[in-house]
Each structure stands twice: as structure tokens, then as C-alpha cells.
Amino acid sequence: MNTIPDKSVLEKMHIETQLKAVTQFLSCRTPDAWITTAILPENLEIILVDHLICELKAAQTASLLLRKYVLDDASGQHLLEHLAPYENYIYRQEGSLESLKALPSFTKSNLMARNNLAETMFTSPHKQVVTQVDNVDKLAKQLINDMVLLIKEELHHFIQVFDIMHERKITYQNLSAGRYAKRMMQGVRTHEPMTLVDKLICGAFIEARSCERFASLAPYVDDELSRFYLSLLRSESRHFKDYLSLAASLMGETQTNELGEYLTDSIDDRIQFFRQIEQEAILSEDSVLRFHSGVPVSYI
Known about the structure:
Elements: H1 7-25, H2 32-38, H3 41-69, H4 73-92, H5 97-101, H6 108-112, H7 117-120, H8 127-131, H9 136-167, H10 180-185, H11 194-217, H12 223-231, H13 233-253, H14 267-283, E1 285-286, E2 295-296
Parallel strand pairs: 1-2
């Protein structure tokens, strides 16, 4: 006689199906000790607050890539102005959920109406990185399309997390930054275009780990929070793939000199390099609990 799996088993099977690409990309899953610690009521509040901060940081990262590599000054300023109210709340506790909800939606058409890429491509050493590929327009448009969508979605997620915190009467508190992103970025090379390639790969790992953490928490939190975390899997998984696709495009189309410079390391080599750093950050002990932190020190 066949046994019908209970709801939790079916849910976990569904999650694993959605996570397949993510788990193949990452070298390890979230340790049970982190999950056990994170779902404690007093700690889940910290996780939600840090999640709120992470959504802003993700939007800021994408914004920086756009401003540094493809946007002109006017468009870059417009992007900064759009992020400012969210930053003012996180860093200065200025504004409110209602004021952030009332902000106009960020769109690519609004941004691109201001941008004159052709006039700025050769005026900045960083923007010249994009001009080194065979199809400048294609890569620039890919970067703009992917990062604008990411910013829009991350800011929407910011509001969703803020809403959940508000409903649960969780007060925002300043949190010190975890070590995760810093450890990843320490491996970034300092010469272009490899700096950009490495930043894109780091972005892929951060988004992939975020996706995996949402899935890891979902079976153990209340229904409302579980549904919310599961709703984020598709976008977070796409974000990691977008970052990887951009890195591959840059590596695959970068022009080289007669010595073959810029092709000494393949993207696979760099993925493996950062995979090791990421694994060490996740599996080693950590003195603070954050959304991307390692094993809580009390469990070592």
C-alpha cells in the first residue's frame, strides 16, 4: 500500500525541485545549527531585520555596478536619489513604511530616458571595461536590464519585509555587518576587467545563498513567513543566474592582446575559487547571527 507523504514532506520535495540549480552551484547547505538557532523567536527578529538590510544592500550593489560601468552622471544621480529614502531609513531612521510605500516605482524606461551611454563609455576607466567586449551594446544592455530588474525586485522585497516586521511589531535596530560579504569581496582582483568579473561571481554566490537560506528556513517558521520565503525563491534564483550570465558574457567576449591577457583564468576557475571562500564562511564558526552568517559559536 502506497503512503501519501504528509504536507511537510511534499513541501520539502517542492522546495528541492526549485533549488536544484542553486544547490548544484553552492558547495554546501546551511548547517542545521544555524537553522536551529535562527528560528528561535528572539533570533528570528534579528534575521528579519538583517534580511531587511540585505535587501537594500542587494539593490545598492546593483546600483553601484550600473553607475560605475554603464550609466552617465545624470542617470547615476537619478538612481542614487531613488535609493536615498530607503538608505535614510536604514542608516538614519528617517521616514516610515507608509512614506516608502508611497514612493514611485523604479523603472528602466525612466532611467534610460536620462542616460546617454555613448557619450560616457570612453570617459571613465571603469566604463571602458565594457567597451572591451566585441558587442558593447549587447553587454551594456544586458547589464542594465538585469540590474534594473534586480533593484526593482529587491526594493519591493524590502517593503514586504518591512510590512512583516510592522505587523509583528518588530522595531528596526541597527545591526553590525556580518563577515560574509566582506570575506567574499576580499578575493576580488584589482585589475579590470577581472574586478568586474569577480564582483559578478560574488553577486551570484550571495544571491544563491540567499535563495538557499529562504528555502532552509521555510519549513520551520510560521505559515505566513514560510509562504513569503518560498515566494522569493524564483526571483533570487534568477538573480544568481543573471550575475553568472553577465560574468560569462564578459569573459567570453573580452578582447585580448597578443599575449592573451584576461584569459589566464576561466570563469570556472573563479567560480571554484569563490566557492571555497563561500563554503568556509558558511561552515566555520561565527560570533554573530546574521542572515548569511556561519555556524553559531555556541554550537562549536
